[in-house]
Amino acid sequence: MENFILTISFLLMGMGLRRLPNFPKETPQVLNLFAITLSLPALILLKVPQLAFSTDILVPVLMPWAMLTISALMILLLAKRFSWEKEVVGVLLLLIPLGNTSFFGIPMVQAFFGDTGIPYAVLYDQLGSFVALATYGTIVLAFYGSGGKPTPTSVLTRVISFPPFIALLLALACRGILFPQPLLTLLNALATTLVPVVMVAIGFQLTLRLTPDTLKPLGIGLVIKLAVAPLLALLLCRILGLNTLAAQVAIFEAGMPPMVSAGALAIMAGLSPKLTAALIGLGIIFSFLTLPLLYQLL
């Protein structure tokens, strides 16, 4: 509970800093870049080598792809039922299957499960959400957005040049290797900056832009993302008899709000910016209510 309160406190700090004139509007982009380049890779290098390889780790690797498939199919069926416009369908296909499992998810996993849950959250994010954003996300943008169409080379380049993904490969290669103490001290110092830096950045850019035409897709999208998807993940794990820490973290990550990075891509592609901002902003706010409830079910 103490970590959860700290996480909310950092979020509120970010919202407060936005009202100070000394902080430019580019502040969250700078903070996110710092987290992507230094904080998150450091955390990955510290925690992933501690993983014990077993069938348990398959759950956080496969779960995001199962949730993506189910969520995307639900969106397509509902889009046909309600005759949503192309831009609305594109936003929902991009933001609802892809959760904020890194910047928001890893701090929340740490708050509820402690450090032991972080390696599984990293696997869920880097081998699930991030790869899905680079592949599935680019396909959605190609069909529904206004940007240029991706190529296999551009997708591969995006994946292999992403600092956290490089850190994951290094961490897997370094299993069983003891880092020297000065390097451990440096990695620990950088890793501890992840939660405050990321949550301040999220709070700084938290905005709500509601219009009547966005209310129905907004409500349906958030219900699927914050309630239906994690409950289906929970049901699937219960049916398969999976109740390990890896499975619990995977279910918890399935209930994260829409991905901020996916939202940024949606806006850049001209896909309903108001709906995108509302999904991200309200998704984060409501997740502070839904995630504790989901944790109680695990």
Automatic annotation (TrEMBL):
User: InterPro entries in the record, alphabetically?
Assistant: Mem_transp_PIN-like, Na+/solute_symporter_sf
What are the alphabetically sorted keywords of the record? Cell membrane, Membrane, Transmembrane, Transmembrane helix, Transport
Any one of the GO CC terms: plasma membrane
GO BP terms: namely:
transmembrane transport
Entry-linked Pfam families: Mem_trans
Can the keyword NAD be found in this entry's annotation?
A: no
Gene3D superfamilies per the UniProt record, alphabetical: 1.20.1530.20
Q: Where do the TM regions start and end?
A: 29-46, 58-79, 91-113, 120-143, 186-206, 218-237, 249-269, 275-295
Does the record carry Cell membrane as a key word?
yes
As for membrane topology, the entry says: Multi-pass membrane protein
Q: What is its main location?
A: membrane
Localization terms from the record: Cell membrane
Per the record, the similarity remark reads: Belongs to the auxin efflux carrier (TC 2.A.69) family.
Query: Matching PANTHER family, A to Z?
Result: AUXIN EFFLUX CARRIER FAMILY PROTEIN, SLR1864 PROTEIN
Protein name according to UniProt: AEC family transporter
